[in-house]
Write a structure and sequence with these properties.
By secondary structure, this protein is an alpha/beta fold. It is built from 29 helices and 27 strands. The two termini are 68 Å apart.
Length: 873
């Protein structure tokens, strides 16, 4: 922290502040002073800018001052989220003792360090998104990663090559990423920028330290039960996460009761390019809609979060996909069951995050009632699942635990409509505690007691108009008008003289006052104790409630799939282990929802396999729908492999293990990368990671460079994919290079298709239908006319196009030969098919050479002559 330029003579309060601030130099320290949270010095300047609160100065000893900005303590839930969302780490420093109980400076300490990746406050959290903290441990060529959402207790780890770690980071979108300080450079080279990061000391990332932390936390003797015993790098990353929780004062973490392995072999590879290009989680353009926006029909926040996980990690194993499908289909056959389950799910809310609040002792009385409502739903849901004619639902229902014991206790002990804060009182029901009932009787029947006392004293003294009242100065008193003061008994004690009356107290009245005022304080203390005991009892049910949360979230996702399918005319795809993708009448799930009213999406068929039609080369004009066709194919496959029905008339999906896309690109100027460099980076990533189970989408590759460069690269990439003996990846290659249509003649598994158009009166009508065969024209000039290009420009473009087509060479590109063909690493332009007269001369010189009788001197002379012809003197 930068220190003030003025020498500071510290007051005791500021001395305490700087001592605590010194332990959290990189965090904004919210320092509780009375009813306010104050910030000082550099923190005050930051806080005032972020929160829009007034920046002032306060005296800090002789001839010095310090910047100050603060807000009322009850506004913490308003201001804390703003600081965290601005990327700040915030240390909340509270008063640890009652100021009334000490004559010295109040003891203070940090009770919580909130960072973007560690938040429980619901005002910071997005209800339908996980708030993951990630830790990355890097070795030479591989590493480990761990993810923790402290608000739900989900703890996951994985290890593998760097591209696998990068893929997981892209899919899980952590709010904060921990890494080793000494490996900052390696970290920034592997992972894209934009993550909030925090560096930890290297000693944190050691296997011994990490393993010790995990075993201590889970109270086990090994990690075998979690399936991560041999994941050295994954264990180290997970240990770093636990260390960070300790560092940030998060000690109540009993709800983190399990750690799971993310097994690379179980899930489809979706790299960050694919996630972005397919607009799975976020649209590329402002105002657009993502896939998740369309398919998320869940009822609960925890269902929505799980759906995002399913989409980020599509399944490769057929059986779990079929299990999910069977449930969705069952809901189609039993709509009444679906409606009943949805009705019981609605009151559940975010049970997953509620139970985490129990673990940290932060569940409010109103949230306790929400917990009761959620638990009430579990019994009926269990019965409905158990009675369903579906094995998967039966198994799900069998695992649900209604937790009747604790639910009944909540109903028995908490009033139906409690305040949000336990300190407000009136939270615990009557009949729970005899002591509490007695105190309430004293506190709330006081009026009756005072009326009785007043009647008794009137009868005893004969003073008809005496009255008993209360004020904050004297407490309870008896007021007698001056006309009757001669009747006042001798045992009354005079406290105040007014113009027309006198005020008195009695021993009985004083005893009652002490009793009733003490009762209110004791009631609050006793209610807090009883509520704390209830939370403690509820803590024992955390594992069972967490399992319930997970099961209900799964059920919610499957109900959402059924709703999605019913509302959008989706069908159940046949998912198997074949190498075929056969989609009939496929539609784009997002685009079809954004069409103008009355306009229907034009469906298309796509067939790919590894033996007959491995590569579809798709030509057609811009705006014809090539990009949509590519994307919809990938999205249909993805939907099928998360267990959803798909937008098609029918579909057979042989599971894929990787989905790659190279769709569109924009300059990444901030990193010094052009459009073409972005294209090549993505294309290289695809070619270096191909498998036989891959689905590859290339859209307009090579637009970022010259025409012949683009054709050459596109041709050689298609050729590489076709001739790769280790991996026959199924590929859709959309292009405006019609020259690629020639590949069908030489490569047996390449097929030409085009997105058809109709030309009427020199105007183009886009039919958006995929048909066999290549396209003859690009219709780019027609598109220019549609865009409003000046007629003179369009006319001149047509003239130039005709001239270029007339002069364009005939022929194609030959297949590679020799070593080049064996390695499938390129293409060869036929030197003997070029029309350039200079090149023809050189060709003639070489063709006429008698190699067998050529002397070294003749060879040098001939080479010199070729140089002269080529103008290279």
């Amino acid at each position: 922290m930068a220190k003030s330029k003025t020498p500071v003579v510290e007051t005791p309060l500021m001395k305490q502040y700087y001592n605590i601030k010194g332990k959290y130099p990189d965090a904004i320290l919210l320092f509780r002073v009375g009813d306010f949270y104050e910030t000082f010095s550099e923190d005050a300047i930051k806080a005032s800018e972020i929160l829009g609160i007034t920046l002032t100065q306060r005296a800090n000893g002789s001839a010095s001052s310090v910047e100050l900005a603060g807000f009322p303590h009850h506004a913490l839930d308003t201001y804390l989220p703003k600081l965290v969302r601005a990327g700040q780490r915030v240390a909340v420093c509270d008063q640890l003792e009652d100021p009334k109980m000490t004559k010295k400076i109040v003891k203070r300490g940090v009770t919580e360090l909130v960072t973007p990746g560690i938040a429980i406050n619901e005002n910071i959290l997005e209800h339908r998104e996980n708030n993951f903290l990630a830790a990355v441990h890097l070795e030479q060529k591989s590493g480990g990663v761990a993810f923790l959402d402290i608000s739900t207790g989900e703890f996951l780890t994985a290890e593998g090559p760097f591209d696998h770690l990068e893929k997981l980071i892209s899919g899980f979108k952590p709010k904060e990423v921990l890494f080793e300080k000494s490996k900052r450079r390696a970290f920034t080279e592997i992972f894209v920028s934009g993550h909030y990061t925090y560096g930890l000391d290297d000693w944190v990332f050691t296997e011994e330290s990490a393993r010790d932390k995990l075993l201590k936390h889970f109270q086990t003797k090994s990690l075998k039960g979690f399936g991560i015993e041999r994941l050295k790098s994954g264990v180290i990353a997970a240990g770093a996460v636990l260390h960070y929780l300790d560092l940030t004062q998060h000690h109540q973490i009993s709800h983190i009761s399990n750690i799971s392995r993310i097994d690379e072999d179980k899930y489809v590879w979706l790299d960050r390019f694919t996630i972005r290009n397919l607009e799975i989680f976020a649209p590329v353009n402002e105002g657009g809609r993502s896939l998740i926006d369309i398919i998320d029909q869940t009822i609960t926040p925890m269902g929505s979060r799980l759906l995002k996980r399913w989409v980020a990690l599509p399944l490769k194993d057929v059986q779990p996909i079929l299990d999910r499908q069977s449930v969705v289909e069952h809901f189609f056959r039993a709509p009444d069951l679906k409606m009943e389950l949805e009705a019981h799910l609605r009151p559940v809310g975010d049970l997953e995050r509620l139970v985490s609040k129990v673990a940290v002792g932060r569940i409010t009385p109103r949230e306790m009632i929400q917990m009761r409502n959620a638990l009430r739903s579990i019994g009926p849901v269990r019965e409905l699942c158990m009675s369903a004619d579906n094995v998967v639902l039966n198994h799900l229902g069998d695992q649900l635990n209604a937790c009747d014991t604790i639910r009944e206790r909540i109903e028995r002990e908490i009033v139906p409509d409690p305040p949000n804060n336990i300190n407000k009182g009136n939270v615990i029901r009557d009949g729970v505690s005899a002591d509490l009932d007695e105190l309430r009787n004293i506190a709330f029947s006081g009026k009756d007691y005072l009326n009785e006392l007043q009647k008794r004293e009137i009868g005893r003294t004969g003073i008809p108009n005496l009255k008993i009242s209360f004020n904050n100065v004297f407490g309870y008193y008896i007021e007698v008008r001056n006309t009757h003061k001669d009747k006042v008994p001798s045992d009354w004690i005079r406290k105040q003289t007014l113009v027309n009356a006198e005020r008195y107290i009695t021993e009985e009245l004083k005893e009652y006052e002490n009793k009733i005022l003490g009762a209110e304080e004791r009631m609050l203390v006793l209610e807090a104790e009883l509520y704390s005991a209830l939370i403690s009892a509820l803590t024992e049910f955390i594992p069972a409630i967490q399992l319930n949360s997970n099961l209900l979230a799964r059920l919610d996702c499957l109900l959402g799939f059924a709703t999605l399918a019913a509302e959008n005319n989706y069908v159940r795809p046949v998912v198997n282990d074949s190498e075929e993708i056969d989609i009939r009448g496929g539609r784009h799930p997002v685009i079809e929802k954004q069409l103008p009213v009355g306009e229907e999406y034009v469906p298309n068929d796509v067939f790919l396999d590894n033996d007959t039609q491995q590569i579809m080369i798709i030509t057609g004009p811009n705006m014809a729908g090539k990009s949509a066709l590519l994307r919809q194919t990938a999205l249909i496959v993805l939907l099928a492999q998360i267990g959803s029905f798909v937008p098609a008339e029918s579909a057979t999906i042989g599971v894929v293990d990787k989905i790659f896309t190279r769709v569109g690109a924009s300059d990444n100027i901030s990193l010094g990368e052009s459009t073409f460099m972005v294209e090549m980076n993505e294309a290289a990533s695809i070619l270096n990671n191909l498998s036989s189970g891959s689905l590859v989408l290339f859209d307009e590759l090579g637009r970022g460079t010259s025409t012949y460069d683009g054709i050459s690269i596109a041709w050689s990439i298609v050729e590489y994919i076709h001739e790769n003996t280790k991996a026959r990846a199924k590929t859709l290659f959309a292009t405006h290079y019609h020259e690629l249509n020639e590949m069908e003649k030489s490569y047996s598994r390449c097929r030409n298709y085009n997105v058809s158009v109709k030309e009427v009166d020199n105007k183009v009508i886009f039919l958006r239908k995929l048909v066999p065969g290549g396209s003859e024209h690009s219709f780019g000039i027609h598109v220019a006319r549609m865009a409003g290009m000046p007629p003179s420009v369009v006319k001149r473009a047509n003239e130039i196009l005709s001239e270029l087509e007339d002069n364009h060479r005939q022929g194609g590109i030959s297949k590679p030969v020799g070593d080049l063909a064996q390695h499938r690493e390129g293409y060869q332009l036929s030197f003997f098919q070029l029309d350039d007269p200079v090149l023809q001369q050189i060709r003639d010189q070489i063709v006429n050479l008698d190699i067998n009788n050529l002397t070294p001197v003749d060879a040098l002379n001939k080479l010199n002559e070729i140089k002269r012809i080529a103008g290279l003197k």
